[in-house]
Amino acid sequence: MELTFLGTGTSQGIPIIGSDHPVCRSKDPKDNRLRSSAMISWGTHRYIIDCGPDFRAQMLHHSVSKIDGILFTHEHSDHTAGIDDIRPFYFRQGEIEVYTSKATLASLKRRFDYIFEADNKYPGAPGVSVNEISEDKPFKIGDKWVTPILANHNRIDVLGFRIDNLVYFTDVKYIPKEEFKKLEGVEVLVLNALRIESHHSHLNLDEAVELAQKIGAKQTYFTHISHMLGFHKEVDSQLPSGINLAYDNLKITI
Which residues does residue 190 pair with via DSSP β-bridges, in sequence order? Predict the structure, then answer.
């Protein structure tokens, strides 16, 4: 199974529009970050985790011509706003499978009602097949089982996903202790690390390192990174063994 980091940035991406921050002006391509998203692929299967405003550019960059479904971690725009751009896939394939919590589905229906309307659907709108998921019930994608893992993102819940020995989290502030049993034996962990300073709804770098070490995966990659974390090269070189910053277009095999 291969994991591709389609984007590793926070809600504004890096560089931020109009910013003269040194990280935003960096010439290192690893400091350029689209909004966070990932692609899981094995055999003939290809699934997307989160579908943000950079979705179209990400699909074009990786020459993706077919997807089997989209897993949503939560409802925020930097993780959902690209859903209209599934239209080319829908026109070729038919309805696209989406996997979403009840709260995220309600948000999507409010903001993208023309996609989810059952009656009098707008011509040309994409179509989806909705699979409502929750943290207490594994679900199947292709021939693999996914275990949802509940986490907190300040005022809302988010879902992480375990597929085989990969766990993907983003926008986490803390994980309830009862969910840790789902993390046993994980080999590759993806976790958010927003910045150096504390944040009300995201792990900062120290918190992310502490949580990663508690989970104990063989390899951890940090994502959902803001310019305030610092330069990729400098931060990555100072991280403990087995922990690295992810970057856009990084591919790893699990």
Answer: 168, 221
By C-alpha distance, which of 53, 101, 109 is closest to 80?
A: 53
Are 23 and 58 in contact by the 8 Å Cβ rule? The answer is: no
Can you name the residues that pair with 96 across neighbouring β-strands? 128
- Per residue of the chain (254 residues), what is the pLDDT tens digit? 999 999 999 999 999 999 999 999 999 999 999 999 999 999 999 999 999 999 999 999 999 999 999 999 999 999 999 999 999 999 999 999 999 999 999 999 999 999 998 776 788 899 999 999 999 999 999 999 999 999 999 989 999 999 999 999 999 999 999 999 999 999 999 999 999 999 999 999 999 999 999 999 999 999 999 999 999 999 999 999 999 999 999 999 99
Kindly list the structural domains of the chain, giving each domain's residue range(s) and its CATH number in brackets, ordered by start. 2-253 (3.60.15.10)
3-state secondary structure of 193: coil
Strands lying side by side in the sheet with 128-132: 128-132, 96-100, 69-71, 45-49, 37-42, 2-7, 251-253
- pTM of the predicted structure, to 2 decimals: 0.97
- CA 40, distance to chain mean position in Å, is 11
Question: Kindly report the CA angle at 142 between 141 and 143, in degrees rounded to 5?
Answer: 105
